Protein backbone atom coordinates (compact mmCIF):
# COMPACT_ATOMS: atom_id res chain seq x y z
CA UNK A 1 0.00 0.00 0.00
CA UNK A 2 1.46 3.33 -1.00
CA UNK A 3 1.89 6.03 1.60
CA UNK A 4 -0.60 8.89 1.54
CA UNK A 5 0.90 12.15 0.32
CA UNK A 6 -0.70 15.38 1.44
CA UNK A 7 -1.44 17.50 -1.63
CA UNK A 8 -0.57 21.18 -1.17
CA UNK A 9 -3.29 23.72 -1.82
CA UNK A 10 -2.51 26.18 -4.61
CA UNK A 11 -3.42 29.22 -2.52
CA UNK A 12 -3.94 29.97 1.15
CA UNK A 13 -7.27 31.53 0.18
CA UNK A 14 -9.69 28.61 0.25
CA UNK A 15 -11.66 29.56 -2.86
CA UNK A 16 -9.07 31.40 -4.94
CA UNK A 17 -9.83 31.25 -8.68
CA UNK A 18 -13.22 29.62 -8.02
CA UNK A 19 -16.51 30.68 -9.61
CA UNK A 20 -19.67 30.24 -7.56
CA UNK A 21 -23.36 30.63 -8.30
CA UNK A 22 -26.09 30.79 -5.67
CA UNK A 23 -29.88 31.06 -5.75
CA UNK A 24 -31.64 33.30 -3.28
CA UNK A 25 -28.46 35.21 -2.50
CA UNK A 26 -29.79 38.65 -1.56
CA UNK A 27 -31.16 38.13 1.93
CA UNK A 28 -30.73 36.01 5.03
CA UNK A 29 -28.59 32.90 4.76
CA UNK A 30 -27.90 33.41 1.06
CA UNK A 31 -26.60 36.92 1.61
CA UNK A 32 -24.19 35.71 4.30
CA UNK A 33 -22.99 32.91 2.01
CA UNK A 34 -22.27 35.34 -0.83
CA UNK A 35 -20.16 37.52 1.44
CA UNK A 36 -18.19 34.57 2.80
CA UNK A 37 -17.57 33.07 -0.63
CA UNK A 38 -16.13 36.37 -1.84
CA UNK A 39 -14.15 36.81 1.38
CA UNK A 40 -12.45 33.47 0.66
CA UNK A 41 -11.55 34.43 -2.90
CA UNK A 42 -14.45 33.29 -5.09
CA UNK A 43 -16.37 35.35 -7.61
CA UNK A 44 -20.13 34.96 -7.38
CA UNK A 45 -23.24 35.05 -9.55
CA UNK A 46 -26.45 35.62 -7.61
CA UNK A 47 -29.97 34.66 -8.67
CA UNK A 48 -32.95 36.41 -7.10
CA UNK A 49 -36.48 37.40 -7.99
CA UNK A 50 -36.80 40.25 -10.45
CA UNK A 51 -38.88 42.55 -8.26
CA UNK A 52 -38.36 45.86 -6.51
CA UNK A 53 -37.58 44.38 -3.09
CA UNK A 54 -35.08 41.81 -4.35
CA UNK A 55 -33.39 44.20 -6.77
CA UNK A 56 -32.98 46.74 -3.98
CA UNK A 57 -31.58 44.07 -1.64
CA UNK A 58 -29.00 43.11 -4.26
CA UNK A 59 -27.90 46.70 -4.73
CA UNK A 60 -27.40 47.01 -0.98
CA UNK A 61 -25.40 43.76 -0.95
CA UNK A 62 -23.35 45.03 -3.89
CA UNK A 63 -22.52 48.24 -2.03
CA UNK A 64 -21.50 46.35 1.11
CA UNK A 65 -19.17 44.08 -0.84
CA UNK A 66 -17.71 47.00 -2.81
CA UNK A 67 -16.89 48.77 0.46
CA UNK A 68 -14.79 45.80 1.58
CA UNK A 69 -12.74 45.46 -1.61
CA UNK A 70 -9.29 47.00 -2.21
CA UNK A 71 -9.41 50.37 -3.96
CA UNK A 72 -7.90 48.79 -7.07
CA UNK A 73 -10.71 46.23 -7.38
CA UNK A 74 -14.15 46.60 -8.93
CA UNK A 75 -17.20 44.91 -7.45
CA UNK A 76 -18.32 44.10 -10.99
CA UNK A 77 -15.34 41.77 -11.27
CA UNK A 78 -16.46 39.62 -8.35
CA UNK A 79 -20.26 39.84 -8.25
CA UNK A 80 -23.12 39.78 -10.75
CA UNK A 81 -26.89 39.59 -10.48
CA UNK A 82 -29.04 37.31 -12.65
CA UNK A 83 -32.71 37.94 -11.74
CA UNK A 84 -35.41 35.40 -12.47
CA UNK A 85 -37.99 33.03 -10.97
CA UNK A 86 -36.05 29.89 -9.99
CA UNK A 87 -39.21 27.76 -10.06
CA UNK A 88 -39.22 28.14 -13.86
CA UNK A 89 -36.85 25.62 -15.53
CA UNK A 90 -35.52 28.10 -18.09
CA UNK A 91 -34.37 30.46 -15.32
CA UNK A 92 -31.77 27.95 -14.12
CA UNK A 93 -30.39 27.40 -17.62
CA UNK A 94 -30.10 31.14 -18.21
CA UNK A 95 -28.62 31.73 -14.75
CA UNK A 96 -25.79 29.25 -15.18
CA UNK A 97 -25.13 30.32 -18.79
CA UNK A 98 -24.87 33.98 -17.73
CA UNK A 99 -22.52 33.15 -14.86
CA UNK A 100 -20.23 31.19 -17.19
CA UNK A 101 -20.37 33.90 -19.87
CA UNK A 102 -19.16 36.43 -17.29
CA UNK A 103 -16.65 34.38 -15.31
CA UNK A 104 -15.65 31.60 -17.73
CA UNK A 105 -16.51 28.54 -15.66
CA UNK A 106 -18.53 27.17 -12.72
CA UNK A 107 -16.87 25.46 -9.75
CA UNK A 108 -19.38 25.89 -6.93
CA UNK A 109 -23.15 25.91 -6.89
CA UNK A 110 -25.34 26.62 -3.85
CA UNK A 111 -29.06 25.89 -4.05
CA UNK A 112 -30.38 28.20 -1.36
CA UNK A 113 -33.60 29.86 -2.56
CA UNK A 114 -36.54 28.99 -0.36
CA UNK A 115 -39.73 30.25 1.19
CA UNK A 116 -41.59 29.37 4.39
CA UNK A 117 -45.02 30.81 5.11
CA UNK A 118 -46.37 29.17 8.25
CA UNK A 119 -49.93 27.87 7.97
CA UNK A 120 -52.28 25.49 9.76
CA UNK A 121 -52.42 22.11 8.01
CA UNK A 122 -56.18 21.48 7.84
CA UNK A 123 -56.93 24.76 6.10
CA UNK A 124 -53.82 24.97 3.92
CA UNK A 125 -54.86 26.09 0.41
CA UNK A 126 -53.47 24.08 -2.52
CA UNK A 127 -51.92 27.23 -3.98
CA UNK A 128 -49.68 27.70 -0.92
CA UNK A 129 -48.50 24.09 -1.02
CA UNK A 130 -47.82 24.34 -4.75
CA UNK A 131 -45.90 27.60 -4.31
CA UNK A 132 -43.59 26.06 -1.70
CA UNK A 133 -43.03 22.94 -3.79
CA UNK A 134 -42.29 25.01 -6.88
CA UNK A 135 -39.72 27.30 -5.25
CA UNK A 136 -38.12 25.02 -2.66
CA UNK A 137 -38.09 21.68 -4.47
CA UNK A 138 -38.56 22.31 -8.19
CA UNK A 139 -36.18 25.27 -8.08
CA UNK A 140 -33.53 23.20 -6.32
CA UNK A 141 -33.92 20.40 -8.85
CA UNK A 142 -33.76 22.54 -11.99
CA UNK A 143 -30.87 24.67 -10.79
CA UNK A 144 -28.83 21.71 -9.53
CA UNK A 145 -29.35 19.95 -12.86
CA UNK A 146 -28.23 23.02 -14.83
CA UNK A 147 -25.15 23.50 -12.64
CA UNK A 148 -24.24 19.81 -12.86
CA UNK A 149 -24.47 19.82 -16.66
CA UNK A 150 -22.08 22.77 -16.81
CA UNK A 151 -19.62 21.10 -14.42
CA UNK A 152 -19.75 17.86 -16.41
CA UNK A 153 -19.03 19.77 -19.63
CA UNK A 154 -16.00 21.42 -18.04
CA UNK A 155 -14.65 18.05 -16.91
CA UNK A 156 -13.02 19.41 -13.75
CA UNK A 157 -15.49 18.30 -11.09
CA UNK A 158 -17.17 20.75 -8.77
CA UNK A 159 -19.08 21.20 -5.54
CA UNK A 160 -22.85 21.49 -5.17
CA UNK A 161 -24.37 22.42 -1.82
CA UNK A 162 -28.09 22.21 -1.10
CA UNK A 163 -29.44 24.28 1.78
CA UNK A 164 -31.93 21.91 3.38
CA UNK A 165 -33.11 22.33 6.99
CA UNK A 166 -33.37 20.60 10.34
CA UNK A 167 -37.02 20.46 9.24
CA UNK A 168 -36.00 17.62 6.91
CA UNK A 169 -35.55 15.51 10.05
CA UNK A 170 -38.24 16.78 12.41
CA UNK A 171 -41.86 17.81 12.07
CA UNK A 172 -43.55 21.16 12.40
CA UNK A 173 -47.28 21.63 12.84
CA UNK A 174 -47.35 24.84 10.85
CA UNK A 175 -44.86 23.61 8.26
CA UNK A 176 -46.52 20.59 6.64
CA UNK A 177 -46.07 22.22 3.23
CA UNK A 178 -42.45 23.24 3.96
CA UNK A 179 -40.80 20.28 5.69
CA UNK A 180 -41.39 17.85 2.76
CA UNK A 181 -39.59 20.24 0.40
CA UNK A 182 -36.55 20.41 2.68
CA UNK A 183 -36.51 16.63 3.01
CA UNK A 184 -36.62 16.64 -0.78
CA UNK A 185 -33.55 18.87 -1.01
CA UNK A 186 -31.67 16.52 1.32
CA UNK A 187 -32.70 13.50 -0.75
CA UNK A 188 -31.84 15.30 -4.00
CA UNK A 189 -28.29 15.96 -2.81
CA UNK A 190 -27.86 12.33 -1.74
CA UNK A 191 -29.04 10.97 -5.09
CA UNK A 192 -27.14 13.61 -7.05
CA UNK A 193 -23.98 12.58 -5.20
CA UNK A 194 -24.53 9.05 -6.54
CA UNK A 195 -25.31 10.24 -10.06
CA UNK A 196 -22.52 12.80 -10.36
CA UNK A 197 -19.62 11.22 -8.50
CA UNK A 198 -18.35 9.71 -11.75
CA UNK A 199 -17.73 13.27 -12.97
CA UNK A 200 -15.91 14.36 -9.82
CA UNK A 201 -18.87 16.46 -8.72
CA UNK A 202 -19.52 16.44 -4.98
CA UNK A 203 -23.04 17.05 -3.63
CA UNK A 204 -23.78 17.75 0.02
CA UNK A 205 -26.47 19.27 2.23
CA UNK A 206 -26.43 21.84 4.99
CA UNK A 207 -29.28 21.52 7.50
CA UNK A 208 -29.67 24.80 9.39
CA UNK A 209 -31.49 24.86 12.68
CA UNK A 210 -33.42 27.94 13.75
CA UNK A 211 -31.62 30.80 12.05
CA UNK A 212 -32.87 34.34 12.61
CA UNK A 213 -33.87 35.54 9.12
CA UNK A 214 -36.74 37.36 7.45
CA UNK A 215 -38.49 33.98 7.04
CA UNK A 216 -39.13 33.54 10.76
CA UNK A 217 -38.93 37.07 12.17
CA UNK A 218 -42.70 37.30 12.52
CA UNK A 219 -42.96 33.87 14.15
CA UNK A 220 -40.21 34.67 16.66
CA UNK A 221 -41.86 37.90 17.78
CA UNK A 222 -43.70 35.60 20.18
CA UNK A 223 -41.31 35.98 23.13
CA UNK A 224 -42.49 32.78 24.81
CA UNK A 225 -41.89 30.78 21.64
CA UNK A 226 -38.48 32.39 21.11
CA UNK A 227 -37.38 31.57 24.66
CA UNK A 228 -38.69 28.00 24.37
CA UNK A 229 -36.79 27.56 21.10
CA UNK A 230 -33.56 28.89 22.61
CA UNK A 231 -33.94 26.61 25.64
CA UNK A 232 -33.85 23.57 23.34
CA UNK A 233 -30.59 24.63 21.69
CA UNK A 234 -27.47 23.27 23.38
CA UNK A 235 -25.54 26.48 22.66
CA UNK A 236 -28.43 28.53 24.08
CA UNK A 237 -28.99 30.92 21.17
CA UNK A 238 -30.64 31.23 17.81
CA UNK A 239 -28.40 30.94 14.78
CA UNK A 240 -27.17 33.83 12.67
CA UNK A 241 -26.98 33.58 8.86
CA UNK A 242 -23.20 33.84 9.11
CA UNK A 243 -23.20 30.59 11.10
CA UNK A 244 -24.24 28.77 7.91
CA UNK A 245 -21.78 30.47 5.59
CA UNK A 246 -18.66 28.88 7.07
CA UNK A 247 -19.82 25.28 6.59
CA UNK A 248 -20.80 26.12 3.00
CA UNK A 249 -17.29 27.45 2.32
CA UNK A 250 -15.85 24.24 3.79
CA UNK A 251 -17.96 22.03 1.51
CA UNK A 252 -17.14 24.24 -1.48
CA UNK A 253 -13.40 24.05 -0.85
CA UNK A 254 -10.76 21.41 -1.41
CA UNK A 255 -10.75 20.79 2.34
CA UNK A 256 -13.89 18.74 1.65
CA UNK A 257 -12.54 17.03 -1.46
CA UNK A 258 -13.60 13.56 -0.19
CA UNK A 259 -16.96 14.65 1.22
CA UNK A 260 -20.00 13.81 -0.91
CA UNK A 261 -23.52 12.72 -0.08
CA UNK A 262 -23.11 14.13 3.43
CA UNK A 263 -25.51 16.14 5.54
CA UNK A 264 -24.20 18.65 8.06
CA UNK A 265 -26.49 19.83 10.84
CA UNK A 266 -25.74 23.44 11.73
CA UNK A 267 -28.20 23.90 14.55
CA UNK A 268 -26.28 24.77 17.71
CA UNK A 269 -26.97 21.29 19.06
CA UNK A 270 -30.76 21.53 18.84
CA UNK A 271 -31.36 18.14 17.24
CA UNK A 272 -29.49 16.22 19.93
CA UNK A 273 -30.93 18.30 22.77
CA UNK A 274 -34.68 18.08 22.25
CA UNK A 275 -36.44 18.16 25.62
From TrEMBL:
Keywords: NADP, Oxidoreductase, Rhamnose metabolism. The keyword tRNA processing does not apply. InterPro entries: NAD(P)-bd_dom_sf (IPR036291), SDR_fam (IPR002347). SUPFAM superfamilies: NAD(P)-binding Rossmann-fold domains. GO terms for biological process: fatty acid biosynthetic process; rhamnose catabolic process. Pfam families: adh_short_C2 (PF13561). Belongs to the short-chain dehydrogenases/reductases (SDR) family. This is L-rhamnose-1-dehydrogenase. It comes from Dactylellina haptotyla (strain CBS 200.50).
